[in-house]
């Protein structure tokens, strides 16, 4: 039985002070149920790099894990503006989102670069949350499977079975991100099944049975239950709706988990 994951990607939002306020409000909403929730689901938030330290302090003593949104693959060096895995770990991060579509499409990150980052995360025992997903154009051209195959295979290249089983993959169709257009549970399930087949082919069925595949793209309190009810959808990576304590608390409490 795979534990569900409800993850909030704050993107480029919330200063350290605002991060503290949101986490306090979120904890006030879910802490009373924390023990029950922790039985079958993991919760994590991904603040921007500058707010990680403040977030880590506010999360102390909770079951909510801390994720970063990106990192460089080198440990240190002349890489102006970048942040490394050891730096993220020093701030208390346990997970890192890699290959988000905004990194791929707005900042030109290639499959090869993303794979280097995934391998660096694994080396430093940060759990990578590898994002994959097709654009609207690729979707319309019937290329979804091809894109998912390429991004998933390349993203996990060089990992051993244990690391692959611990990794988290997030299917985020680019056309659903920030658009209010969610993939239907059936559409998402189909792609999640494909991702699991890719993992099985490369790492074996045991690994494919363990790896958790999240859905992201316009997840809200109103559609989360339907998505998470699918056997193949192991949770949600939530953007906009994770920026308000009440909506993210509702998502965390999803009945179907
Ligand atoms: P939205 O939930 O705002 O569509 O963003 C999804 C996303 O990109 C999460 O990583």
Give a verbal description of the structure.
The chain has 257 residues and is α/β, with parallel strands linked by helices. It has helices at residues 16-30, 34-38, 52-59, 85-90, 101-106, 111-123, 136-140, 144-156, 161-166, 185-203, 205-210, 224-228, 245-252; strands spanning 4-9, 41-46, 64-68, 95-98, 127-132, 168-171, 212-216, 235-238. Strands 1-2-3-4-5-6-7-8 form an 8-stranded parallel beta barrel, surrounded by 5 helices. Strand 7 (212-216), helix 12 and strand 8 form a beta-alpha-beta unit. Helix 8 packs across helix 10 (185-203). It is globular and about 45 Å long. The chain binds 1,3-dihydroxyacetonephosphate. 1,3-dihydroxyacetonephosphate is lined by residues 9, 100, 172, 177-178, 216-219, 237-241.
Can you write the helix and strand succession as a string? EHHEHEHEHHEHHHEHHEHEH
- Tally of DSSP β-strands: 8
Number of domains: 1
Helix coverage percent: 40-55%
Percent of residues in beta strands? 15-25%
Low-confidence stretches: none
Summary, kept brief:
With 257 residues, the protein is an alpha/beta fold. It contains 13 helices and eight strands. The mean pLDDT is 97.
